[in-house]
Specification:
Blueprint lengths: L2 H26 L3 H18 L1
């Protein structure tokens, strides 16, 4: 993978990590609907970013 492709994936990777983190916080708080929402959002970002 060349440097330009790697630099293009930094922002989506950060968004994916933040979404997964938000889902973990929601699941820990017992809010499963919001947890599923954030996991789904992370999965959509994975599909769009690749």
């Amino acid at each position: 993978m060349d440097a330009s492709k790697r630099s293009q994936l930094i922002f989506p990777a950060l968004l994916i990590l933040m979404n997964v983190g938000a889902s973990l916080v929601a699941f820990k708080a017992g809010d499963w609907r919001r947890g599923v929402y954030w996991i789904t959002s992370a999965l959509c970002l994975v599909v769009v970013a690749t």
